[in-house]
Amino acid sequence: MKVPFHDLKKQYKALKTEIDQAIALVCAETAFSGGHYVELFEADFAKHYSFPAVAGVNSGTSALHLALLTLDIKAGDEVIIPANTFIATAWAVAYVNATPIFVDCREDTWQIDIEDVKRKITPKTKAFIGVHLYGQPFDLGPLQQLAQEHQLPLVEDCAQAHGARYKGKYVGGLGELGCFSFYPGKNLGAYGEGGAVASNRLDHIERIKKLRNHGSSERYHHDEIGYNMRMDGIQAAILSVKLKYIDDWNKRRQAIARQYQSGIKNPKVQLQSQPDWAESVYHLFVVTTEDRTAFIEHSKKAGVATALHYPIPCHLQKAFAHLGYQQGSLPKAEYLAEHCVSLPMYPELTDEEASWVIETINKY
Ligand SMILES: Cc1ncc(COP(=O)(O)O)c(C=O)c1O
Questions:
Q1: Which end of the chain, N or C, is more open, meaning fewer C-beta atoms within 10 Å of its C-beta?
Q2: Residue to probe by mutation, ligand 1, list 6, 59, 61, most atoms within 8 Å of CB
């Protein structure tokens, strides 16, 4: 049996009529950049997750960048972020000319280590970004408390976690700003690029709407230096269609995860520990194993495709070499980077395919 790592075609085939109609409507109205369909999607997305306000933008990276801009983070400031995340979390800090301060992860949940955050706070710290990596909420409570104590904003990177819940509440509405990505492979994915920022603070969302549109809320009046980071109408219309299915898709991911969690029984393979306050939406299903090369080879021979998220932690990327981190600076994030393997995880994966993945791993 062949189990691909991902299969976006299956989903398109299932939704083809609805998606094609949505695209045709946008074209008929030539509502291509920003506009009506973006406003509709913002309202749909906000309602679905009970977010007071949402701004649609052109990517998750822009969502994070605009979040930091609206918080007035600037050169000389420090922003504390986990080292084990996709690089875009760190780009946002670099784009506003601030310094990313990387912290380690916990050994069990692989999420941000609050004790390490505490050690790294300085008078220059101006914000925290927590990442709900792989779709599993990080422990928001202690980080929220720390943010309150220091009167600093907490930004949630929810790029991988649409619909995940922390203590029963949707992520994205718990920090000062929640940033989402709609990159095609995400749990809620566009057919191109897309992102959104959610917030309880309407002033933040208003400012982001201005910043994404060349710093303008009135045509050809530019109040501050702005950007072209609007969401496309076609992406918004597609996302409004797909939003109707996200809860079912997440439930299917959770069912596959349960199958993996109960079926994988191999002492050479470790799973991410999941506290009972964390309801993951399993954007990725990641395991660790000592000899990753042998594991990947074994899986490949059995027809099971795997991937790596992420093989190099942010603090050891060449782009951040000037910050002076070295191998050994953040040992748990480094261990994860060297030993992680992602298994196939998407709603269209069949029970038989999931069983084959399990059988393959148990034979390793
Ligand atoms: C954790 C995380 N943050 C940020 C991003 C950036 O999102 P985008 O690719 O939409 O710019 C991604 C996705 O790629 C991500 O996984």
A1: N
A2: 61
Cα 86 to middle of ligand 1, angstroms: 6
Classify residue 3 by its DSSP letter: B
The helix/strand/coil state of 218 is strand
Taking the CA of residue 61 as reference, the ligand 1 atom at the shortest distance is 11
pLDDT at res. 55 = 98
pLDDT tens figures, 248-294: 999 999 999 999 999 999 999 999 999 999 999 999 999 999 999 99
Q: Which atom of ligand 1 is nearest to the CA of 133?
A: 1
HSE, CB side, 13 Å, CA atoms: give it for residue 351.
1
Q: How far is the CA of 266 from the centre of ligand 1 (A)?
A: 32
* Ligand 1 centroid to residue 1 C-alpha, Å: 31
Cα(194) to centroid(ligand 1), Å: 10
Instruction: Give the contacts of 34 (CB within 8 A, at least 6 positions apart).
Output: 213, 230, 231, 233
Residue range 153-166: mean pLDDT, rounded: 98
Ligand 1 pocket test target in 57, 85, 86, 110 with most atoms within 8 Å of CB? 86
160 CA: nearest ligand 1 atom: 16
Q: How far apart are the first and last CA of the chain?
A: 16
Q: Which residues make Cβ contacts (< 8 Å) with residue 284, sequence separation at least 6?
A: 134, 135, 160, 309, 342, 345
Q: What is the mean pLDDT of the chain?
A: 98
DSSP structure string for 122-180: -TTEEEEEEE-GGGPPP-HHHHHHHHHHTT--EEEE-TT-TT-EETTEETTSSSSEEEE
The pLDDT score that the predictor gives to residue 241 is 98
Q: How many CB atoms lie within 10 A of CB 185?
A: 13
To the question of pTM greater than 0.90 for the whole model, the response is: yes
The answer, yes or no, to whether any atom of ligand 1 lies below 6 A from the CB of 156, is: no
Confidence band, pLDDT 50/70/90 cuts, at residue 15: very high
State residue 265's pLDDT score.
98
**Which domains are assigned to the chain?**
8-243 (3.40.640.10), 246-363 (3.90.1150.10)
**196-208 exposure pattern, b = at least 16 Cβ within 10 A, e = fewer:** bbbbeeeebbebb
